[in-house]
């Protein structure tokens, strides 16, 4: 009976993984949303935290290595893997991930992959999986030598970051990414409680596994999750207590929380309903008395002008793939071009709301120059009243390697310095003269 229950639990978990992968790869649902949707507790069966952690690990591992997995499967099938129906396709992907990435015992990897396949496809899944286990060394070599990320992104990174792209890929394929944390106060105390290390700029980093919501202090609103790189833009903005700041594209609220914790008065704007719900939940949990205006920034009208505006623009988020591996398959060259047009409109709108001698902090988590360096260069060239404010190494700890000769900050996942494996980020400050 116990062995039967264990098998049942294992199959349920893997079926959840199959649902997540289908949502992400076929329907382009963000990974975090797909995970939440699949793991909401059902009345008939309640997943434990351990089950959820396994589901997260297996599903995210498939996504991190999907290009290699599919390339390997193409060597085993008569037709490309993408031509298979979704059920056997996902079952095979899960099977390979278990063998080559998670090092699951072969018999368990084969049996569970067959069990989650529909009856019509079990023979095929069984045959392919057994071929892999019979010649494991051969197919592992194929797996290791296969392309690691989609061709469109690989070509782009090779061109833009020839000395760094291999480090980007290595970061993406870390199946146990760390968690960075911003705390309201008493960093050293929370370092001990969360079993974390203190990074430069008072950022905490933990490698502990498990659900974030289960960690001490989370529900009490003492801290929030925010990557090291994401925290830099606010920390170099010279924010003073009671200063009024307009935070654009503010959801889900990490930078708003930073500024509020510094004593600033923040007006936050975003038009994304789902993200705004997360924003409101985060602010309630953190006990910050603030609201978000749900409006399209490009249609926002106000007689008021601001001395400081933070624009964390929507972007391709290619600097965050290590945490959001769905981006590898939901984006393309067209995405970059489309987003760069939106960013141009947003920065123009932000500029119109800025006072003379005011400062606009522009940032995003993209590694693509069209969304960062090239955009800012063109903007300053086309605006005689715009001046790039050059950052210097004295304003913040451990960002020397990220400050470029032009004066902006370009953080790469594999930058030199004390902090390793961080999100890619671009930050530029412009003064209205």
Task: Provide an overview of this structure.
The chain has helices at 2-26, 31-39, 49-64, 66-74, 86-101, 106-116, 122-134, 136-145, 151-160, 165-172, 187-193, 228-235, 254-261, 273-286, 327-330, 333-352, 373-382, and strands at 179-183, 197-199, 203-206, 223-225, 244-248, 265-270, 292-294, 306-312, 354-364, 386-389, 409-411, 425-432. Strands 5, 6, 7, 8, 9, 10, 11 and 12 form an eight-stranded mixed β-sheet that branches. With 433 residues, it is an alpha/beta fold. The protein folds into three domains: 2-145, NusB-like (N-utilizing Substance Protein B Homolog, Chain A, Orthogonal Bundle); 179-225, no CATH class; 228-432, Vaccinia Virus protein VP39 (Rossmann fold, 3-Layer(aba) Sandwich). Strand 5, helix 13 (254-261) and strand 6 form a beta-alpha-beta unit. The termini are far apart. The protein is 46% helix and 14% strand.
Describe the largest sheet: 8 strands, mixed
User: What CATH architecture label of the largest domain applies?
Assistant: 3-Layer(aba) Sandwich
CATH secondary-structure class of the largest domain = Alpha Beta
Q: What order do the SSEs take from the amino end to the carboxyl end, as H and E?
A: HHHHHHHHHHEHEEEHEHEHEEHHEHEEE
Number of DSSP helical runs: 17
How much β-strand is present in the residues? 5-15%
- Tally of extended strands? 12
- What do we call the CATH topology of the largest domain? Rossmann fold
For this structure, what is the CATH homologous superfamily of the largest domain? Vaccinia Virus protein VP39
Shape: globular
Q: What is the overall pLDDT average?
A: 93
Structural class by sheet pairing and helices = alpha/beta
């Amino acid at each position: 009976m116990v062995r039967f229950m264990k098998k049942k639990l294992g199959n349920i978990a893997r079926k959840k993984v199959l649902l997540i992968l289908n949502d992400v790869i076929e329907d382009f649902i963000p990974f975090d949303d797909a995970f939440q949707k699949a793991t909401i507790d059902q009345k008939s069966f309640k997943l434990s935290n351990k089950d959820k952690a396994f589901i997260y690990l297996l599903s995210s591992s498939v996504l991190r290595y999907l290009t290699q997995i599919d390339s390997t499967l193409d060597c085993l099938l008569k037709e490309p893997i993408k031509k298979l129906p979704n059920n056997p396709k996902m079952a095979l992907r899960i099977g390979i991930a278990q063998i080559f990435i998670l090092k699951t015992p072969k018999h368990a990897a084969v049996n569970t992959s067959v069990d989650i396949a529909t009856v019509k496809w079990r023979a095929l899944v069984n045959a392919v999986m057994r071929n892999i286990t019979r010649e494991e060394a051969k197919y592992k070599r194929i797996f290791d030598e296969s392309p690691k990320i989609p061709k469109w992104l690989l070509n782009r990174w090779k061109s833009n970051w020839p000395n760094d792209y291999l480090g980007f890929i290595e970061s993406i394929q870390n199946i146990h990414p760390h968690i960075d944390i911003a705390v309201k106060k008493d960093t050293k105390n929370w370092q001990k409680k969360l079993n974390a290390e203190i990074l430069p700029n008072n950022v905490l980093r933990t490698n502990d596994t498990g659900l974030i919501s289960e960690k001490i202090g989370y529900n009490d609103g003492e801290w929030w999750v925010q990557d090291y790189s994401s925290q830099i833009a606010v920390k170099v903005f010279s924010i003073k207590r009671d200063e009024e700041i307009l935070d654009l594209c503010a959801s889900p609220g990490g930078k708003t929380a930073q500024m509020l914790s510094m004593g600033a008065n923040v007006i936050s704007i975003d038009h994304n309903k789902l993200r705004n719900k997360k924003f409101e939940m985060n602010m309630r949990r953190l006990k910050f008395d603030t609201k978000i205006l749900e409006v399209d920034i490009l249609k926002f009208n106000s007689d008021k002008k601001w001395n400081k505006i933070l624009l964390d623009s929507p972007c391709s988020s290619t600097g965050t793939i290590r945490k959001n591996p769905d981006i590898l398959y939901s984006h393309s060259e067209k995405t970059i071009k489309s987003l760069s047009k939106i960013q141009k409109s947003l920065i123009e709108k932000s500029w119109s709301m800025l006072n003379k001698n005011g400062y606009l902090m522009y940032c995003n988590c993209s590694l693509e120059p069209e969304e960062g360096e090239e955009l800012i260069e063109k903007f300053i060239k086309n605006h005689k009243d715009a001046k790039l404010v050059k950052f210097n190494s004295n304003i913040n700890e451990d960002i020397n390697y990220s400050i470029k000769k032009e004066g902006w900050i370009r953080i790469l996942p594999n930058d030199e310095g004390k902090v390793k494996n961080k999100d890619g980020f671009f930050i530029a400050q412009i003064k209205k003269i």
